[in-house]
Specification:
Layout: H1 14-20, H2 29-42, E1 47-53, E2 62-67, H3 74-79, H4 101-109, E3 112-118, E4 125-130, H5 131-135, E5 145-146, E6 155-161, H6 171-185, H7 187-192, E7 196-199, E8 202-203, E9 222-223, E10 228-233, E11 239-248, H8 251-254, H9 259-265, E12 272-277, E13 280-285, E14 301-307, H10 312-315, H11 328-361, H12 363-372, E15 390-396, E16 404-409, E17 412-418, H13 422-428, H14 436-462, H15 468-484
Parallel strand pairs: 1-7, 12-14, 15-17
Antiparallel strand pairs: 1-2, 2-6, 3-4, 3-6, 4-5, 7-8, 9-11, 10-11, 11-14, 12-13, 16-17
Length: 485
């Protein structure tokens, strides 16, 4: 077969272009595959089935994506593998924009792509692109050909054959990676029930990098603040909002997990910002954090930024929708506040780990107090009205006029020391200068003194005495004395 003749006025040399487009920059199979799922969602599909197989033992994998969307007419089908051939070119209402996703994503992973579509139970039609045929000079033929067989409803199937860019040797490893990545990219749609996505017949579950919905040892992350909203003007004259959410991971409940569990659960290695466009994740990384550098403590908080496609210019959306290039306007609007919040949350995480260490060091005192409780006057509580108390000592910032605060819940007396009160530094700082044994004995004596005071005021309060004023007066007096020492 002879080589294709190239005219002088042709814009592209097909054989070279088709090889070049294979290097279109998709960072993973998941991001390339997401282009097909985007198309399915734009076609109003609610069910998308991805199948990964190896037709021949030791051969290259094949990937098939089938949806129940509205399908394509013959003319649209014949345009779908043309670069820029989308009927929705430069639309800002959904995922697609440039009409490059289907052919570019497909050829970045496979040497041959076939697209089959049908509407309203009518006969299916198919178009295809073959890298090797085009590179050999065979004229490109994108005419649709009718396929045999009976169809029902409407839908579309995209098949990638001879996938020579897949790095996974075992399909089980590939499937595990796809579940994780696609579950994260489309988490909003999967959680809301707008999309049922299956991989080799098994449903893909949503993966939330914010860990707000994850249950790890019965605990989840929580929002650090109410969502922030920034209104920006687009080049079209329209305005739209950028919504930013921050989450804090529960250090006190998850710090003890082993590293394997932390990594598998997304605690370790999950730091950074997730960028969502029209509800679909397009990027993740250390974005819009100003001069704040990423540290290990930053694993324990998360950020999610969501925007409308109207603001694409501000985020510098790339053709393959897997990265951003923030505009100067966007950086100035969001950067300073997001950087300040990042530093604040980093500080909170540090404080939480200090609290964990502090609380661990108080366990000896709490055990001694619990052992002695059976010989002390009973403090009645609702539900379990009797029995020995257990004790807990923590520390955090409180009102400056209180040395500590205490509460009794479920037979546990919780004493929180005020790190801002002069007593905290005065009582605990000298312990660092002593040997371990002497420091341990002095610390236990000190903490038993505080626990006994808290227990006594709790008992008196249950008998109708107002001990809050006593605690405040004692705290002020002790603080004033320390300041004079």
């Amino acid at each position: 077969m002879g080589r294709q003749t190239q005219r002088k006025d042709d814009l592209l040399v097909s054989s070279n272009f088709i090889r070049a487009v294979r290097e279109s920059g998709y960072v993973s199979l998941s991001t390339a595959l997401a282009e097909l799922i985007d198309n399915s969602l734009q076609a109003s599909a609610t069910e998308v089935a991805v199948t990964v197989t190896r037709p021949k033992a030791g051969g290259l994998p094949e990937i098939r994506v089938e949806d129940d969307g509205e399908g394509m007419s013959r003319s649209r089908l014949e345009a779908c593998l043309r670069f820029g051939g989308s009927s929705r070119f430069d639309e800002r209402q959904s995922f697609g924009r440039f009409g490059m996703g289907l052919p570019a994503a497909s050829l970045s992973q496979a040497r041959r792509v076939e697209v089959t579509s049908w509407q309203n139970g009518q006969a299916a039609n198919q178009v295809s692109l073959d890298v090797d045929a085009i590179a050999a000079g065979t004229p490109v033929d994108l005419r649709a050909r009718r396929q045999p067989g009976v169809t029902t409803g409407s839908g579309c199937v995209v098949t990638w054959q001879h996938c020579d860019r897949i790095e996974y040797r075992r399909l089980a490893w590939l499937e595990r990676a796809l579940r994780r990545d696609l579950g994260r990219i489309y988490r909003r749609f999967l959680s809301n029930g707008d999309l049922t996505l299956t991989l080799n017949g098994k449903r893909v579950d949503p993966v939330d990098p914010m860990l707000l919905t994850a249950k790890i040892e019965e605990h989840s992350a929580g929002l650090a603040f109410e969502p922030l909203r920034y209104e920006l003007a687009a080049s079209s004259g329209k305005t739209a909002f950028v919504t930013v959410r921050f989450a804090m991971l529960p250090v006190q409940h998850w710090h003890h997990l082993d590293n394997v569990t932390k990594r598998r659960s997304g605690i370790v290695g999950g730091a950074g910002v997730s960028i969502l466009r029209a509800g679909r994740e397009i990027a993740s990384g250390w974005h819009l954090m100003g001069a704040k550098r990423k540290e290990n403590y930053d694993d324990w908080w998360r950020c999610e930024i969501e925007f409308d496609p109207v603001l694409d210019e501000h985020f510098g959306i790339t053709i393959n929708k897997q990265g951003i290039r923030p505009s100067q306007v966007l950086q100035e609007a969001l950067g300073p506040e997001l950087e300040a919040i990042a530093r604040l949350l980093n500080s909170r995480v540090r404080q939480a780990f200090e609290e964990v260490k502090f609380q661990a060091a108080t366990e000896a005192s709490c055990r001694v107090a619990a052992a002695a409780d059976a010989d002390l006057p009973v403090i009645p509580t609702a539900g379990k009205g009797s029995g020995a108390l257990s004790y807990r000592i923590g520390s955090e910032q409180l009102s400056i006029d209180k040395m500590f605060a205490s509460s009794l819940k479920r037979r546990t007396l919780d004493v929180t020391l005020n790190v801002d009160h002069p007593a905290f530094a005065a009582l605990y700082r000298p312990l660092q200068k002593l040997g371990d044994e002497a420091a341990g004995e002095l610390r236990t004596a000190l903490e038993l003194f505080l626990l006994s005071f808290a227990r006594t005021t709790t008992l008196l309060s249950r008998d109708g005495h107002n001990c809050d004023d006593l605690l405040r007066m004692w705290s002020r007096t002790y603080g004033r004395m320390l300041q004079k020492s």
